[in-house]
Amino acid sequence: MGHRYAVILFLGLFTALSSFAGGEEPERSSRLFDGAGTYAGATASPSAGAMDAETLKAELKKRITFDDHGSARERAGYEALLSRLLESPTARAEAEKFIQADLRIAFAFEEMDGTTIATVEGRKTVWGPRGVTYTSRVPPGVALNKAFLDHEQDVGVGTFAHETFGHAVSASSLSGDDAAANRYIVTEEENARLIGWLVRTELSVPPEDETWNYVANPEGSMRGLAMAHPYYSLQLTTDELRDPLSVYRERLVQAEELLASIPGRERNIEKWGRIVDHFINAHKMDQSSFRNIRDSLENSRKALPNTRKTYTDIRDILAQRIAYFSSEKGRAALELLRKSADAPFVAERDAAILANRQKLKDLLAGKTPESTRPPPMAGQVTWDQLRELLQADQKHCEFGGVK
């Protein structure tokens, strides 16, 4: 299912990113991260590391402005989220740094466009955007998909950690050219993802495929994000920062190819629906045994409009960036990007990423994707079994084989 839970870091893709150098991010001289868990000018909370869970939660709440929209349900969800969050050792450590630095965020649950409640193996799951960090606000704003009030609450907890201790802290840590360049550096997302994954793993949330893919191939996994969301399509590795235009041109071709593939995906969904109908009607197989496959096809069908919009937006933002960086005004920004590859904050974050990457590997040692997945529903035809049935059914080759 690839990046079905793309986390959005909203930065005003078509406007704010054009103002690349200086001026756009307000100075936050009282909240500048020095890389060691303390912030210049911050008023430290004494003995944060010695706080018990309830005291830590109370101190954290002092630094969060929560908009409950007048809803008792949202207030209860917020209280439960913070309590569960602080059951994670990683989250407690990050919360202590947050408190010591006297950082702040504004937080709310929000309805998010593109959200689908999908059914996978009989369980309701949230597809679409999980959360958002409004990095240009002071303090940074964090929003969590309101769907997490009803479904996959622990995934929502990990998303809150991702946004708050990843993106929001980063927004309070950088200013000027570093803040502008940071929007284009993929380790901004990698750092936040690792924090969220560590929290979720410590809370016994089964790792998703993208987590396993990352553990197996971190660099390849992060490169694969480029076609998951317009913001990710602009993010670059340290090596790619040295020649962004070449990377963006390659990605533009890829986005156009993916956009052109949507009609084929629609036809493929329809084809597999007919194949399922065939085995139910012609072979008298129990239709209830195809429920998971039907759900999977329906999930894919419902996701296609958002997928089409995503690829369209990626194509458009890449074309815009290519034009901008090719202009006289954009060449100065392009040079700034190239220089940012050697910025001290990039090296500091790389070191933190390597440490958290190893921590995640240690947490998952001895486990496999198969061992951590919930058991499959009994009595359901799997996709592999359906392909075998189709291959054996030589009389019905009008389906055109399996692609």
Structural class: alpha/beta
What percent of residues are in strands? 5-15%
* Low-pLDDT segments, ≥5 res: 1-48
By DSSP, the count of extended strands is: 8
Structural description of this entry:
Helices cover 54% and strands 8% of the residues. It is α/β, with parallel strands linked by helices. It has a domain of 122 residues. It has a four-stranded mixed sheet. Helix 1 packs across helix 3, helix 4 runs antiparallel to helix 6 and helix 12 packs across helix 13. The N terminus is likely disordered.
SSE blueprint:
Blueprint: E1 32-33, E2 39-40, H1 53-62, E3 64-67, H2 72-85, H3 89-100, E4 105-110, E5 116-120, E6 123-127, E7 131-134, E8 141-145, H4 153-173, H5 176-182, H6 187-202, H7 209-216, H8 218-223, H9 230-233, H10 244-260, H11 262-281, H12 291-326, H13 328-340, H14 344-363, H15 369-372, H16 383-392
Parallel strand pairs: 3-4, 4-8
Antiparallel strand pairs: 1-2, 5-6, 7-8
Helix pairs in contact: 1-3, 2-4, 4-6, 6-14, 10-12, 11-12, 12-13
Keywords:
4-stranded mixed beta sheet; disordered N terminus; single chain; 16 helices; 8% strand; alpha/beta
Q: What can be said about this structure in brief?
A:
The chain is α/β, with parallel strands linked by helices and 403 residues long.
